[in-house]
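Comment thread on ticket #2218

A.B. wrote:
> Attaching the input chain for the structure job we discussed in standup.
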Amino acid sequence: MRKKIVAGNWKMNLSLEEGQSLHKTINSELEGASANCEVYHFTPSIYLTSLINEDQKVQVGAQNGHPEKSGAFTGEISMSQLKAIGTQAVLIGHSERRQLFNESDSFLKEKVDAALSEGLKVFFCCGESLEQRENGDYNTTVVNQLKNALFHLDSTDFQKIVIAYEPIWAIGTGKTASPEQANEMHQNIRKSFAHAYSKEIAEDISILYGGSCKPSNASDLLTQSDIDGGLIGGASLKAEDFLAIISTYK
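C.D. wrote:
> Ran it. Output below, let me know if you need it in another format.
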């Protein structure tokens, strides 16, 4: 049975006080409730030590990490440093890192290897642009992103990955892939795993949807056959909205 996961990506938002309040509220609401899905907060790195507590319902992850263990990389934080403070997971390959910081598939591959070597859970993002969607290259684009950064892993390490499919054209634009479009892409991703590894492994990997998911469309999206949860952006910044999405799996 694949794990259902709802993960909030705060991006570069919220003050420390606001973040602490949000994190506390979500944990409090989930306390004592039967957990039908795993819940994560991916927070700005400077907030990690203030939010990490192993006894909490909400696991805490980093939005980024550098593949080198140490060295002259001013402003970067290594995977080993993230692990040392108790970070449980890390986002790799988010479209904003690819587009704004020019992170290549080969660099993301290094990040994946470094994160797994430290025992961090990897949430690997993939997705296509509007142009790639409209010209029909979307499936090839996404599968190549996965192949280039992940398919060198052996089956044991590969099963430690969570995939987040994020159609770039549906992030922060107000546009959303239809439930059918999103599910079709998730099915194609799963087929690529079956081809590269096995059908059994493909069926065990959680694939999240990450494109403008909000309370009004969460049920339609997250209950599709091959969608195992959501990587939530703007709606994760408000406790009421985030809890409403989590409740999809109540």
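A.B. wrote:
> Thanks. Noting for the ticket: The chain has a mean pLDDT of 95.
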